[in-house]
User: Fold this.
Amino acid sequence: MKEIVIISGKGGTGKSSICCALAHLWKDRAVIADCDVDAADMHLILHPQSSESKDFFSGIKATIEAETCSSCGLCASVCRFDAISAQKGKYLVNQLDCEGCAYCYRICPTGAISIPEQKVGQYHISQSRLGCTLIHAQLNIGAENSGKLVSKVKSVARHQAKQEHKDFLLVDGSPGIGCPVIASLSGAHFVILVTEASKSGFSDLKRVWELVKRFNIPGACIVNKADINPVICREINEYLLKEKILALSEIPYSEDFPAAISMGRTLMEQNESTWRPIFEKMGNAIKEIM
Amino acid sequence: MRIAIASGKGGTGKTTLAVNLALFAAETEPVLLMDLDVEEPNGSIFVEGVLQSETAVYREVPRWDQSACTLCGKCSAWCAYNALLKLGDTILVMPNLCHSCHACSELCPAEALPMKQESLGKLSYLECGNLRFVESKLDIGLEQASPLIAESLKYADKMFSDIGFQIIDSPPGTACAMLSAVKTADFVVLISEPTPFGLHDLNLAVETIRQLSIPFGVVVNRDGIGNDDIYKYLEQEGIVLLAGIPNQRRIAEIYSQGGLLYKAIPEFRTSLDKVLRYAKGIR
Assistant:
């Protein structure tokens, strides 16, 4: 079973639409994992028919019991995150600022602080309308530990793919280069970078590829909206050649992307004759490398 | 006043709105623009400024002092992030997991974990007429964006407290990085697009900003694609629609070259003016 991660650096380049199209192409051969856990959208296209949901606990946050607190203020003085403040002589933890280091808990002289484990999100094992299994998740608002939730989604998806004897685990990653992206790359066999022919898209592609290189994972690139800026598109292709990234496909600017999303369809369902040949070609190229 | 431009979904036009709003406002008053999308900052593609300074940003992480360590293992047992690991007669420090809480360093009975500086990223400060522009860029390979965002905001408070109008370009999402970038703002502009993805992620962003109790409004980008569910949502929720940006291939082309929309498309000035007036009315 091979693990393929789709990332982009920049958001809004068409990553999830492309991932849904590949999911459609490989509906009998792959398990899908939506690892963009703080803005998960694939379920809006793949419409789960049935789901098994589980709470995800990770990390802790401090709370102060008012009756036991002696108002000495030691907790607030050691907190590096300015999460503890006095209100009417009583100390309170701002839950959004607390990073769960437990320093206050360890030094509180009256034992007034507790550190309950936090439910930071949920993950779901779903049967998508296409037939393939979709593992997706939702991180709670403002929650930390998105990287840990990504790791959880991936490990559940990996297990599922092996159990179902699938050839691929297809992972939709999040934008950026930080913890959720790093977590989605860990253990991957192949990376598909989705960029667009814009200065921003190219700049973000270079930064995310610098990250991928540290993992020694081979990569291929899809240039979306390739025709909006032929100059940048050429520069991107030169870069791909230099960095030994496979130029997988160039996709023209197309209103099919938002139209398909709005109809809750994959690109192939939106316009079979245009998109099936494009994605079949991509799929064959990926299989060849694998 | 400080305005943050944010969105749940990536690629909805945060940077476009932030740079155009900042340069448009800077035609009449001093403005500070901060690009705090530290993982993938792109503001400098659009702002042609003169570089004034570059500042390295650091945070503190523990360093193991083997000669002082008694190998009691308390640090490793206490660290909430598993950033310290006692392996035989060695204490392994993993900076990528460390949140710089200082607990291990200050509670170590042998004082064997002094804090040392570790690079987080770089701040570039540029000037462009009335505009002061600060771009914050995370070192590649680092996992946590929030500490750099917090340090960048401290830098802005120290250097630019005299600039009354400040705009922040936030990271996408609704997790800790986005929260760190918007939490000091007086007003948040959420930008999204009229598709089910855009609406779904806007809804998450709205819930996030409501938790922070910051006033906010919405700009709908690529108006004309998708459907009108987003407008129905805004009406139902009593959320103000600040402006719409039409879906035009030409806009995508201007953006792709690093161009400024309000210079190429005069109608866009009216949209920016509406956003500015509303935000300033909040104060």
User: Anything to note?
Assistant: Chain A has two domains: 2-58+120-289, 62-115. Residues 37 and 160 of chain A are 18 Å apart (CA to CA).
